[in-house]
Design brief:
The complex is a heterodimer of chains A (578) and B (911).
Chain A (H helix, E strand, L loop, with lengths): L3 H17 L3 H13 L9 H7 L4 H6 L29 H12 L3 H7 L6 H25 L14 H14 L4 H13 L3 H14 L4 H9 L4 H6 L6 H13 L3 H12 L6 H13 L3 H14 L7 H10 L3 H14 L4 H13 L3 H14 L4 H13 L3 H14 L4 H13 L3 H14 L4 H12 L6 H13 L6 H12 L3 H18 L4 H16 L3 H12 L4 H27 L3
Helix pairs in contact in A: 1-2, 5-6, 5-7, 6-7, 7-9, 8-9, 9-10, 10-11, 11-13, 13-14, 14-15, 15-16, 16-17, 17-18, 17-19, 18-19, 19-20, 19-21, 20-21, 21-22, 21-23, 22-23, 23-24, 24-25, 25-26, 26-27, 27-28, 28-29, 29-30, 29-31, 30-31
Chain B lengths: L14 H13 L14 H16 L9 H12 L3 H14 L3 H11 L23 H15 L2 H25 L9 H17 L10 H9 L5 H26 L11 H18 L5 H14 L5 H12 L3 H15 L20 H14 L3 H17 L3 H17 L15 H4 L6 H19 L2 H17 L20 H12 L11 H16 L7 H8 L3 H11 L3 H21 L2 H14 L6 H19 L1 H15 L6 H17 L8 H16 L8 H17 L3 H17 L3 H17 L3 H17 L3 H17 L5 H18 L2 H17 L9 H18 L2 H18 L2 H19 L10
Helix pairs in contact in B: 1-2, 1-4, 2-22, 3-4, 4-8, 5-6, 11-13, 11-22, 12-13, 13-14, 14-15, 15-16, 15-17, 16-17, 17-19, 17-20, 19-20, 20-21, 20-25, 21-25, 25-26, 26-27, 27-28, 27-29, 28-29, 29-30, 30-31, 31-32, 31-33, 32-33, 33-34, 33-35, 34-35, 35-36, 35-37, 36-37, 37-38, 37-39, 38-39, 39-40
Classes of the chains: A mainly alpha (578), B mainly alpha (911).
Chain lengths: 578, 911
């Protein structure tokens, strides 16, 4: 295990280097992790620790699993020592000026100041400033050039020259790891993914503390094969990378394991907590996620990142008040973040005001066209508003942003089912199940499609319901439907089997209702016809506890059973007359 | 962000449109004069107008022209005012030095439009009618400009700079000596010098500047459409490439790539779609993919791109990509895109038209060989179109469904058309598949008729003809004893349906979209500009070029939509098929030839392939294998790239036949038989494994297997195969195939020496042939029947001869070489075995037949039968005492026998 102290030292140096190169978000991330390391209480005053964490009791509750302590874990690899700061004196003045221009977001000025500087650091800052200038212009042009057909060819005009320069530098070897990172980003923008990946891998291997490089690399790992093929030096930063990459590849338990391990060092990292919450959300552990987010907000009340996820949880739990509170809070913090808009949209959706919800989702999309969950949620709103073609359009856009979004596939299926095209819808359901094969809801939706009167493919429906039961159907639809379908198909034995199971489930959960009556009536009748009178009587007596027509039915059944029991010998008499 | 904003008529001001506006200003200056300044004649003036009109309508590409191309074309149009035109044009651009000039320019543009009420127009004033196409164009330009934000104007301004600079630089490239040209005015100077140069060198026009144009002139008009488009594509690609390389120079993106108007793009895409369908997978799918990608980048909201991608993938047999793109297209567009072309039908609601998506999906499944899926989807399509009362879609769906049912072997015993069958056919749930097909066709025809869907009507008629050809019509519901039953197909109604189908040619125009025809005419007009115009097209060209020039030009002018000519072509193919079945070889051949000559190029490649296939089969039957193989190599070159090529199938068939004919009947292990067996297996391997798919192929394969077994003298196995084949045919209702299987069974029994067993099969085959009017097959069955009778003993020879003579006219008139030879030999056999026949008195009767037979067998290399004929000949000569002839025949006999015993160089033609 890496010692906390060495981590701390590494990060401290890295933050300085990163912010010196104006890689602010990487520096921010590193800073968060730095504070996330548990401080040595003996070295610090109590006020210092209090600042760090006030109420970690709840967190402890959820991190009880002892983190694995690999003895042969990664030690600080000698290959990646902290790079020494170089030639600060030589280009110091101009560099300082450029950096302040950069900090004022005057990128072109910054790069101009550094035009003749040859040191690695100024070279990087010059290129980076140029790149950002191009990006800024690109964003503007995207709005300006937006034609009626959505022409989207606004590109960063600096890419070509940057690529030329960086590739020349790379050929001569006069490029440091930050330059490699920028080169990777440029290549990625230009669509050359393989080279971009190679360049980024080289960058993170020589300088692992640049989280931006890792996240660029992660966005290029679209499949587990690609991920496994990367040749990465081992370093604790790699674990962070793997955790987030696994999460993107929907390998939630693997990613959870990574984060649990990391929590051994960074036990107070908000980042890790949020990521864990994300993974838990995907595993549908809503209660746990809610507590984690509450905790997170308490420590970091002005956080907006990931809060849309929290709002989804609150939405699922139908916690109107909490949701409105959250919405209010993030709106005060930063109104023009897609996450904030999304949270408000969720709130209105929960309140049933779908037009307003759509408006906020649209605003979120204006801010970020590729904001996946807003597309999907907007699709849901349109479905609620019965505007199916708009819903289909929105879902399709979500799917085209990320083809692995099972919610959007599911939404597409649902929309088509609403339009009375169950067979067409099946394809979409199949797609969504492909990405999330262990979710009973998807299986049930598909089964319902097969069961629809247009298709009436009951055998297939039964198969789907069985899968749903195997996936642990929480809502108990599948068992009931299976029983009914078998009953419909005249397979009474199977029907009885599933009714019994369903009854067990309802008993265990303490539920009652028409399904219960139905199961009881069927079982009683079925057992009676099979001459298992005792068992039939048990079910009948259970029915007697309830009022209503079922009670009458039970009474008549009981009467029948008595009759049959008493008639039994007499029937014998008839068959065998003396 | 569609779904949020859907603006249909995308129209943006671009440098090219400004060029057109400038030209329009020249064409219709607001000044008052009958003929504006530079023009010397009215026709010259009109020519410019015509040119401008074409520019706004042509749909032969997706990008707008570059200034350089425009100037080149202007030269062709302008005759002697071209210099003035180009100078004016470029000057106008050089005056645009600030965004404000643009504003003024568009304010001026307003002046050339007449007032809307058009009351006060003086006689000699040229004004643009605001409602004319050009007037609308100007109005749209002005409107679009007025809608621009200041940033938009700035972008327009900088792209105009790029537009001019590019033209400038590309001209600078041509003339290295003038490489220091800097301004556009100087460029004009150069222009003039080149013009002088042109005048000096007489006839050599400006093609020096455009190698592509030069290419077209030298290659003349023989260049086919595909080649043209591919060169165009190539040119585009190179232009893109050069643009990107220049981008490296000054790190600028190429701004001059603007899309044409939405209307033109849609027209272009339609043409491309036609091309994909016509040429199938021989069309390079990756090149299409490339331009679709570019297009999608430039216009992400143009969803038809997805549809084209679907078509492309469909034709290159990529199931998953095709499915994905189809669904994506309908998800995005709700089936309503292109609504600015087609007025929204009455049934179009806010729900979109997803039923069309279902229809397409069904047809896709059909094409990929998933009949059950296809049927489910189409059923859903019927239901949804009924719900949304989209009658057009319903008619098409019903037609597709009937097509599916008739093409795919649906076993009569299975109930694929399960409980969920739609109400249209619910009355028919107890009916056989054939009857359902009939009902569906009738329904579709009726709807298409009322909706005036001419093409659907035509293809339904053809489908009906096919149905009539293959099926005996029975009254639908009354099967009682009183219902009069015709047990025959009705060739007259087949003929009638085919004719009704071909009626289309007279009045297709009412339905087909006018826009595409206009657009393609305009593009043709523009293309023709590339040819020297100054000389009259016909007189001069035809002097040293062949007549096809005229023909080509004529074709352009008529401009029948591809789909129409495809249907008419299909009707000829169907005629050929029906004649083939009815047994008239010359008629079949003639119709196929008509198809191949008239429609071979314009229709789909799979149809053209079918025509070639028929012709080659005809050759093999009537001229022998040598010719057939020669023709096959030609066809192979032509259709090599077509997916699911039938040529491969044909090759296997031919090799199989050939091997069977050359095989040794004594030694069943001979190489030829093995080869035949291999061909059989390969043939069977071509078919899909799915039940009910590729039935024709499967039947063919097992038929051939039985024949191979028969040739190997494994009679019982052959009979078994034939029996199971008969069962399959029965199960899948393949009536015509049943007749030939029965005949094969009779043959098997005949060869195995069990003539009594063979008789009922032969008779059954004949009765099948009668009810389906298969005259040639019937003649062949009659021959077998006669052979069987003779096999019962020589006392039946009279009866056999009688039967043979009854079938003789048909056999000799239409039969292939083998059949005729067999008939001749059999006739001789009959005479010889007739005890009352004496060779010495009537030798000519026998000898004539035998000579005929051996002549015809020569081409077939059918050694066994030849040997038999020669043997008989030698015997007859021997009887007659003509020793010399006898020896000759005997020697030939020996040759054939040795050839049979030593099958050397078995497969010269097999790869």
């Amino acid at each position: 295990m890496v010692s906390k102290e060495s981590c701390r030292n590494e990060i401290r140096a890295a933050i300085r280097q990163l912010s010196d190169r104006c890689l602010y978000s990487a520096a921010k991330w590193a800073g968060e992790q730095l504070v996330g390391i548990e401080q040595d209480p003996s070295n610090f005053t109590p006020s210092n620790t209090r600042f760090q964490r006030g109420s970690s009791s709840i967190r402890r509750r959820f991190s009880t699993i002892s983190t694995p302590q690999p003895s042969a874990g990664f030690s600080q690899p000698p290959a990646t020592p902290l790079p020494q700061e170089e030639d600060e004196v030589i280009d110091g003045d101009l560099y300082l000026l450029a950096k302040s221009y950069f900090d004022c977001r005057e990128y072109r000025r910054a790069s101009h100041v550094l035009r003749d500087q040859m040191s690695n650091k100024s070279l990087f800052l010059r290129c980076y400033a140029l790149y950002l200038a191009g990006e800024k212009r690109k964003e503007e042009e995207m709005i300006e050039l937006e034609g009626p057909l959505g022409k989207s060819d606004a590109i960063n005009r600096e890419l070509v020259s940057l690529e030329r320069e960086l590739s020349a530098l790379k050929r001569t070897g006069a490029i440091d790891s930050f330059g490699l990172y920028l080169y990777g980003v440029v290549l990625k923008e230009k669509g050359n993914e393989t080279l971009a990946r190679a360049s980024l891998v080289e960058s993170v291997n020589s300088y692992p503390w640049n989280w931006s490089a890792w996240s660029e690399l992660q966005s290029l790992c679209t499949s587990i094969e690609i991920l496994n093929s990367l040749n990465l030096n081992s370093h604790w930063m790699k674990e962070f990378f793997l955790g987030s990459a696994y999460q993107e590849l929907r390998m939630h338990s693997e990613s959870l394991a990574k984060y649990e391990y990391l929590q051994g060092i960074f036990s107070f990292s908000n980042y890790i907590q949020a990521q864990t919450a994300k993974a838990q959300y995907s595993l549908r552990e809503f209660d746990q996620v809610e507590i984690m987010f509450e905790d997170l907000l308490r420590n970091d009340p002005y956080r907006v990142e990931d809060m849309d996820l929290y709002s989804n949880v609150l939405y699922a739990k139908e916690a109107c008040a909490a949701l409105s509170y959250l919405a209010h809070k993030v709106f005060l913090t930063d109104k023009y973040r897609p996450e904030s808009c999304c949270i408000v949209g969720n709130y209105y959706s929960l309140k049933g005001q779908h037009e307003k919800a759509v408006m906020y989702f649209r605003r979120a999309l204006k801010l970020n066209k590729k904001y996946l969950s807003a597309w999907t949620l907007m699709g849901h709103e349109y479905v609620e508003m019965k505007n199916t073609s708009a819903a289909v359009d929105a879902y399709r856009r979500a799917v085209d942003v990320n083809p692995c979004d099972y919610r959007a596939w599911y939404g597409l299926g649902q929309a088509y089912e609403m339009m009375g095209m169950p067979f067409y819808a099946l394809h979409y359901f199949r797609k969504s199940i492909f990405f999330l094969p262990n979710d009973s809801r998807l299986w049930i939706a598909m089964a319902k499609c097969y069961q629809s009167e247009q298709l009436h493919m009951l055998e297939e429906a039964i198969k789907c319901y069985k899968r749903a039961v195997n996936c642990g159907d929480t809502e108990g639809i599948a068992l009931n439907q299976l029983a009914k379908l078998h009953q419909k198909l005249g397979r009474n034995e199977e029907a009885a089997f599933y009714f019994e199971k369903d009854l067990e489930r309802m008993d265990a959960e303490g539920l009652e209702g028409p399904n219960m009556f139905e199961a009881l009536v069927f079982l009683a009748t079925h057992l009676k016809t099979n001459k298992k009178f005792d068992e039939a009587e048990v079910y009948c007596t259970r029915l007697l506890d309830y009022s209503g027509p079922e009670k009458e039915k039970a009474k008549s059944l009981l009467r029948g059973i008595r009759m049959a029991q008493t008639d039994f010998p007499s029937m014998d008499m008839e068959h065998f007359p003396l | 962000m569609a779904g949020l904003t859907r603006t249909a008529g995308a129209f943006a001001v671009t440098p090219h449109k400004i060029s057109v506006c400038v030209l329009l200003q020249i064409y219709a200056p607001s000044a008052q004069m009958s003929l504006p300044f530079p023009f010397s004649s009215v026709s010259q003036h009109n020519r410019l107008g015509l040119y401008l009109l074409s520019l706004t309508k042509a749909c032969d590409g997706m990008y707008e022209m570059k200034l350089e191309e425009l100037i080149n074309q202007l030269r062709e149009v302008g005759d002697d005012v071209d210099a003035w035109l180009t100078e004016n044009l470029t000057n106008r651009f050089s005056y645009l030095s600030s965004p404000d000039d643009l504003l003024n320019f568009f304010t001026d543009m307003r002046g050339i439009l007449g007032s809307l009420d058009s009351g006060a127009v003086q006689d000699d004033q040229i004004v643009l009618d605001p409602n004319s196409i050009l007037g609308m164009f100007v109005r749209r330009c002005i409107l679009a400009f007025n809608l621009l934000s200041f940033e938009g104007v700035c972008h327009l301004f900088s792209s105009i700079e790029a537009y001019c600079r590019e033209a400038h630089s590309s001209f600078a490239q041509y003339d290295a000596s003038n490489s220091n040209l800097e301004s556009l005015t100087q460029y004009n100077q150069m222009d003039k010098t080149t013009k002088l140069h042109k005048n000096a060198s007489g006839n050599v026009p400006f093609h020096l500047h455009t190698p592509e144009a030069l290419f077209k002139v030298t290659e003349g008009l023989l260049v086919t459409r595909t080649e043209k488009s591919s060169t165009r594509k190539f040119a585009e690609a190179t232009s893109v490439a050069s643009a990107s390389s220049s981008k490296v120079e000054d790190t600028r993106v190429d701004e001059s790539l603007f899309l044409r108007t939405n209307l033109q793009i849609q027209g272009f895409l339609m043409e491309k779609a036609d091309a994909i369908e016509t040429h199938g997978s021989s069309f390079s799918s990756s090149s299409i993919e490339r331009f679709l990608e570019q297009l999608q980048n430039l216009a992400p909201e143009l969803h038809r791109v997805h549809f084209l991608r679907y078509l492309n993938k469909l034709h290159s047999d990529d199931y998953f990509a095709a499915l994905d793109n189809l669904l994506r297209y309908f998800d995005y567009s709700a089936g309503t895109e292109g609504f600015d072309l087609v007025p929204p039908s009455t049934g179009c609601s806010m729900h979109g038209r997803y039923e069309i998506g279902l229809l397409c999906l069904g047809m896709m499944h059909f094409r990929f060989g998933h009949p059950n899926l296809a049927l489910e989807v189409l059923t859903e399509a019927v239901r949804v179109s009924q719900q949304l009362s989209n009658d057009t879609c319903l008619a098409y769906t019903l037609a597709a469904m009937s097509n599916l049912l008739s093409e795919m072997g649906i076993a009569s015993t299975t109930s694929v058309l399960g409980a969920s069958y739609s109400s249209v056919t619910s009355t028919a749930s107890s009916l056989s598949v054939q009857q359902r097909v009939y009902i569906l066709l009738k329904e579709s025809l009726r709807r298409a008729d009322t909706l005036k869907l001419k093409r659907l009507v035509a293809s339904n008629h053809l489908a009906m003809a096919k149905f009539e050809l293959m099926n005996v019509q029975r009254p639908l519901l009354s099967f009682g004893p009183k219902a009069s039953m015709r047990h025959k197909t009705c060739p007259i109604s087949v003929c009638k349906e085919i004719r009704l189908g071909a009626h289309l040619i007279s009045d297709f125009s009412s339905e087909s979209s006018k826009m595409t025809i206009d657009g393609s005419l305009s593009s043709v007009w523009l293309k023709d500009l590339q040819k020297p115009w100054s000389q009259p097209v016909y007189s001069r060209e035809s002097s040293y070029r062949n007549n096809s020039t005229f023909f080509k030009f004529f074709v352009h002018l008529v401009s029948i939509p591809g789909s129409v000519s495809q249907i008419i072509g299909a009707s000829y193919l169907l005629r050929a098929t029906s004649w083939e079945l009815y047994g008239s070889a010359p008629m079949a051949r003639m119709n196929t030839l008509v198809y191949a000559t008239l429609f071979g190029d314009s229709s789909s490649s799979s149809d053209a392939e079918l025509a070639y296939l028929k012709l080659i089969q005809h050759l093999a039957l009537h001229k022998g294998y040598k010719d057939a193989f020669a023709a096959l190599t030609i066809a192979e070159e032509k259709f090599l790239t077509v997916s699911k090529s039938k040529i491969m199938l044909l090759k296997l068939q031919l090799v199989h036949e050939h091997a069977l004919h050359r095989s040794n009947f004594v030694k069943s292990t001979s190489g030829n038989l093995k080869l035949a067996q291999r061909m059989c297996n390969e043939l069977g391997g071509l078919a899909s494994t799915t039940m009910g798919v590729d039935m024709e192929l499967k039947v063919e394969a097992s038929l051939r297997e039985a024949r191979t077994l028969l040739a190997a003298k494994q009679y019982s196995q052959a009979a078994n195969t034939a029996h199971s084949l008969f069962c399959t045919c029965h199960k899948f209702n393949l009536q015509i195939e049943k007749a030939s299987v029965l005949l094969l069974l009779a043959e098997i029994h005949k060869k195995s020496g069990n003539a009594v067993m063979g008789l009922p099969y032969a008779l059954a085959s004949i009765s099948f042939c009668q009810s389906f009017n298969l005259d040639l097959l019937k003649a062949s069955a009659t021959l077998t029947l006669a052979e069987l009778w003779l096999g019962l003993g020589s006392n039946h020879s009279k009866r056999a001869l009688g039967l043979l003579h009854g079938a003789f006219p048909m056999i000799l008139g239409h039969g292939g070489l083998e059949l005729r030879a067999r008939a001749y030999i059999f006739e001789a056999n009959c005479y010889l075995s007739d005890p009352s026949f004496s060779v010495s008195t009537d030798s000519d009767t026998v000898l004539d037949s035998l000579r005929q037979a051996s002549d015809e067998l020569q081409a077939l290399e059918y050694h066994e039968l030849s040997a038999e004929a020669l043997y008989l000949m030698a015997m007859v000569y021997d009887k007659l005492g003509w020793l010399e002839e006898r020896e000759e025949a005997a020697a030939l006999f020996k040759k054939h026998i040795t050839a049979l015993e030593n099958p050397q160089d078995v497969e010269p033609n097999i790869a």
